[in-house]
Amino acid sequence: MTMVKGKNALGRLLMKLREEYISNQKPIECVPPPPIVGFILYGSAVETVCDPALEFEKEDYY
Known about the structure:
Largest sheet: 2 strands, antiparallel
Order of helices and strands: HEEEEH
Number of strands: 4
Strand content: 5-15%
Radius of gyration: 18 Å
Helix content: 25-40%
Oligomer: single chain
């Protein structure tokens, strides 16, 4: 039997994000795209993504 060793980098990243944002009750309102030149997804530039609930709240006030 071969033993595979590695790092669970994604798991560690998710744990750190959970610790910083969820445990500390900091809501994530918007997430900008990564600072990568030419970062394209399905042929389009990736834009900032915001929580749709926040956009709905803003529309209610105007």
